[in-house]
Amino acid sequence: xxxxxxxxxxxxxxxxxxxxxxxxxxxxxxxxxxxxxxxxxxxxxxxxxxxxxxxxxxxxxxxxxxxxxxxxxxxxxxxxxxxxxxxxxxxxxxxxxxxxxxxxxxxxxxxxxxxxxxxxxxxxxxxxxxxxxxxxxxxxxxxxxxxxxxxxxxxxxxxxxxxxxxxxxxxxxxxxxxxxxxxxxxxxxxxxxxxxxxxxxxxxxxxxxxxxxxxxxxxxxxxxxxxxxxxxxxxxxxxxxxxxxxxxxxxxxxxxxxxxxxxxxxxxxxxxxxxxxxxxxxxxxxxxxxxxxxxxxxxxxxxxxxxxxxxxxxxxxxxxxxxxxxxxxxx
Length: 331
Hints:
Among the domains are: 6-97, Alpha-Beta Plaits (2-Layer Sandwich), CATH 3.30.70.100; 113-214, Oxidized Rhodanese, domain 1 (3-Layer(aba) Sandwich). It has 10 helices and 16 strands. It has helices at residues 20-33, 55-67, 117-123, 137-142, 159-162, 182-193, 205-213, 270-275, 282-285, 318-329, and strands at 6-14, 37-43, 46-54, 77-81, 89-93, 113-115, 129-133, 143-145, 149-150, 173-177, 199-202, 218-220, 222-223, 230-231, 254-256, 265-267. It is globular.
């Protein structure tokens, strides 16, 4: 039986936060003191995060979130891992917890009906049902549900405009899905606002569906926003659907182009990856700022000298600073 020392947590919670800067500082300090790393967004509308840490530290982190009445309902998707999935901790205040053009929507007031993974699994193949992927192009090109409708969008903020293409489906049951569920909260609410009457969302997204329902009929891999880049979901009937951007052979190796000015998210097979030194084209291969390719296609920002306490108002313990800088600079 496989055992893991670390956990990766994916979560969100729509809840009112009045003093976002004060909460950001409190949250950031808790992460530093418990060696939690990752990306966390704090907004007046709630929280959104992906973090990693030792199993016991992640348990403390989840307890910390749940201890606040505002976030008591937060649901965590927990995956095992053998190390940190991030080199740093970033806790930022932003206008929204997921960038959209739907700021007027409050999912706590109105949103699509939540379907648990097994409910989604039973409903998805019915005749009057359509499955709608609300993610971006590079995500659903790597993996999506069998027979899903995908929209040509590069960012979630483009979703409202593309909904016009779905007018003919207003008499159907529309099942929306995304990576962890957060985008569907607003996407399904917007569909209801536009006159769609029977709208659902996969609660917990693709990640929860893989953990709880075996991932059946999810074809390809799921793009994730940490150093794993892509993860397996389907344990029942897996299938590779993405093709190498360079040679066209079947490949689910997702990389970032080694040319930082390009940095496209693309499927590139191992052979082409090495031949082009991690670039997506000969032109990118010759770029003077091309990054060194190590076979993964993931480029961690340089963390040497990174001070996790930078920007905090509270005076930190000097020994803790020294230890944190040392650990993250050598990660």
